[in-house]
Amino acid sequence: MGALAPGWGDRSDGDRMGDITRGQAACLSVGYTSGQDVIVYSDRDIQAYENVLESGDLSMRVYLMQYISSAEHARKALKAAKKIDSALLRFGGWKLAMDGGCSAGTALMYDTSMTMSAG
Predict the structure, then answer these.
(1) What's the predicted TM-score (pTM) here?
(2) b/e string for 59-72 if b means 16 or more Cβ within 10 A?
(3) For burial by CB atoms within 10 Å, which of 4, 11, 45, 114 has the most?
(4) Strand order in 89-96's β-sheet?
(5) CB of 30 within 8 A of CB of 61?
(6) What is the pLDDT of residues 62-93, one digit of tens each?
(7) Where are the alpha helices (DSSP H) in the chain?
C-alpha cells in the first residue's frame, strides 16, 4: 500500500485513530450506526480500531476484515490471530482475492459489443 498514495503507510497510530474517529463522526452525522471496513491492510490498522474502542471513543458498530495477499500470508495471519468480538467491534476474518477485480484492473473482461458469426 502506498504506491498510489505516497506516505499512506507512514501514518502514525494517532493518525490512524483520527481517521477512524473522523470517519465514524461522518457516518453518525447522517444516521449510520454500523459499518464495515472489509479491506483493512495491516495489523496496525486493526490495532488502531482496538485503541479507539478501548479509549471509549468508538460509538458505532464496526465489522473488520483484513486483506491478505497470499496463501502464505493467510497461514501466518491465522497463527497470530486473536479474537476481537465486542458489542462494537468484530473481526470477521481475512479476505484473499484469488480472482481479478475491476478496480485493480485484473479482472478478465469480454467485449460484448462484438458478435460471433457462424463460419
Answers:
(1) 0.75
(2) eeebebbbbbeeee
(3) 45
(4) 34-40, 61-68, 89-96
(5) no
(6) 999 998 888 888 888 888 888 898 999 999 98
(7) 13-29, 43-54, 71-79
